[in-house]
Design brief:
single chain, alpha/beta, Rossmann fold, 9-stranded mixed sheet, 6-stranded parallel sheet, about 25% strand, globular
């Protein structure tokens, strides 16, 4: 039987949920959308057109939508500053939650949300879509295969030209730390996943150049050290002259004991170590191509199915809210590092934030 759900947010990225992510799962009988909510009445047309909802199933009032419709869970596809209020509403109506990243706009709010969900005995997943895209999933499988020996370090590059106001969505140009909160939240999460360990230490420098029409920092360089001894370097930029590796076309390089793996613009290639040669040099683009994995669903479409399987009693989705606190901690540790000019010990930073939230309760 399909799980009944309320879609909260149908404009902006919510449009993609209505158009692309939900319909395959509706077709598979996994979910049934019983209502949709958006403060912009025009955005609700996305729910009517793509989800087949009637006018009386579309709301601009969150409380009214939840009061008038029984559902098993809701989605949260609104700006991060509003996540906690939607979660509170869902829990007050005995619902599970599937939320867009990040959990919330602050580490404290993220910790509060995880605690509320735990206390209510509910399940909450976070859609870290990039980690579960086709190309990154293929790279992860290659690294987990063990064929290439130990991982030494990782490099991730994400560069775009979104320097003009509202070119990356209006609210991202108005919030503090847009690169970290809205971009690196995915990329640091991917690096930690590929490393296969929690991050120990992070050091970040972020800034906004004069031509970046942002209220917060839009560029950044980050180094990470993980608990298993591996390292990573992240270059994130949203105000460059041109985008070399934008959304879903990021550059990732894994330097392993017996091979170098390069993923760029959705092409994965392998350069094997040859012990018979010294100063061996090859050019990117000339390696042995590794075919990408094939399956019907990727990214958010796949994560919706993972969430439903979890509701069915299966294993918790990898991006459950408790585990996803690690990703949020990476983001805000990087912000703290940039502000202080000092490296931050991520696990200590998270533990201190948990203690502060507990003390304030």
């Amino acid at each position: 039987m399909a799980y009944k759900m309320i879609q909260v947010g149908t404009g902006g990225f919510g449009r993609a949920w209505c158009e692309r992510f939900l319909p395959p799962n509706i077709k598979d009988g996994l979910v049934e959308v019983v209502a949709a909510v958006d403060i912009n009445p025009d955005a609700l047309e996305n729910a009517r057109t793509n989800l087949g909802l009637r006018a009386d199933q579309c709301y601009t009032d969150l409380g009214k939508a939840f009061a008038e419709n029984h559902a098993d869970f809701c989605t949260v596809v609104v700006p991060p500053a509003f996540h906690e209020s939607v979660v509170d509403m869902a829990l007050s109506h005995d619902m599970h939650i599937l939320s867009e990243k990040p959990i919330a706009d602050t580490l404290a709010a993220s910790i509060r949300i995880a605690g509320k969900v735990r206390a209510a005995g509910k399940k909450m997943g976070v859609t870290m879509s990039h980690r579960f895209d086709q190309d990154k999933t293929t790279l992860r499988q290659e690294l987990r295969s063990g064929r290439y020996g130990r991982l030494d370090y990782l490099v991730c590059r994400f560069t775009t030209d979104c320097r003009t106001f509202a070119s990356w969505g209006r609210f991202r140009h108005e919030i503090p730390d847009p690169l970290m909160i809205e971009g690196a939240v995915h990329h640091l999460d991917i690096l930690a996943d590929l490393a296969g360990a929690a991050c120990d230490t992070i050091y970040a420098q972020t800034w906004n150049p004069p031509w970046g029409e942002y209220a917060g920092d839009s560029q950044g360089l980050v180094t990470l050290h993980f608990g298993n001894g591996s390292h990573a370097l992240y270059e994130g930029a949203t105000t460059n002259a041109v985008g070399l590796n934008g959304w879903a076309r990021e550059y990732l390089r894994a330097e392993c004991e017996r091979a170098t793996l390069v993923l760029s613009r959705r092409r994965l290639e392998r350069f094997a170590y040859d012990p018979s040669r010294s100063w061996h040099e090859e050019a990117e683009g000339q390696g042995e191509e590794i075919p990408l994995l094939q399956q019907p669903k990727w990214a958010n479409t796949w994560l919706i199915e993972k969430f439903v399987r979890w509701l069915d009693g299966g294993e918790p989705m990898e991006t459950n809210v408790e585990d996803n606190l690690q990703s949020v901690a990476l983001v805000f540790s990087a912000v703290e590092s940039s502000r202080t000019g000092q490296p931050v010990r991520v696990q200590e930073y998270l533990a201190q934030a948990r203690q502060a939230v507990t003390s304030a309760a």
